[in-house]
Amino acid sequence: MPYDAGNTSWNNAVHSLNKGLMIINIDGIIDRMNDPLVTMAERIGFPPNFKRQGISFFDLTSQSVGLTSLDHFFQELNMPSIRDVTQGKQSDYSFEYVIRWMGQENWVLCEVLPLLISKEKQIQGAIISFSDITKFKRREQLLEQALAHSVPLPGHIPICAVCKYVRHGEGWEPVESYLENRLPIEFTHDICPDCIRRLYPKYSSILDNPELSE
């Protein structure tokens, strides 16, 4: 179905996305922006009356828009790659950058795809999307920190066949503390059904009654 700027349902869907969208033509002229991108721009300092449509995306710099908060964006941005997408020389382009808004650092994923219109799928420009990936980057950073404090385990760990203590150097220690001291994990204790039957036989009948064991 051809793109129809007057289609109300289509417009509502575009403006309801949780990511910012921008359409540029082959020459890099900004044609359209959805509401989430306008809101994102205003959050980082763009004035509400900033002229967006009709200007060249390729001519934008942090100096031209007067926002030093965009320095990292333009440092990471590869304009030739975006030009290549609009000309069909490159199938897509993406990169991540960090920016400050609302008093904290936020990570954004920028993705560029060709804008294909008509049955012949001729490239008419590019769609540039901006997605807030801050929560995913924070999880990634926490994981990296945890792994950085982990100690690689040897391929073979000597463990007692009876008490399950682990031999470490000249000493022995419980398997729980051995692993907790080397990996970002923490054990919690429970008791399995077999041990309940063996250690507390007079209470084990509850395990055989599904209604009571729930």
Concise description?
The chain is α+β, with helices and mostly antiparallel strands and 214 residues long. 31% of the residues lie in helices and 24% in strands.
Write a concise keyword list for the protein shown above.
214 residues; alpha+beta; Beta-Lactamase; two-stranded antiparallel sheet; PAS-like_dom_sf
Plain-language structure description:
With 214 residues, this protein is α+β, with helices and mostly antiparallel strands. It has two domains: 128 residues, Beta-Lactamase (2-Layer Sandwich); 69 residues, no CATH class. It starts with 7 loop residues before the first helix and ends with a helix.
How much helicity do the residues have? 25-40%
Gross CATH architecture of the largest domain: 2-Layer Sandwich
Number of strands: 7
- As residue ranges, the low-confidence spans are none
Which helices and strands appear, and what pairs or packs with what?
Blueprint: H1 8-15, E1 20-25, E2 30-33, H2 35-43, H3 62-65, H4 71-76, H5 79-86, E3 93-101, E4 104-117, E5 122-132, H6 134-148, E6 165-168, E7 171-174, H7 175-180, H8 193-199, H9 210-213
Antiparallel strand pairs: 1-2, 1-5, 3-4, 4-5, 6-7
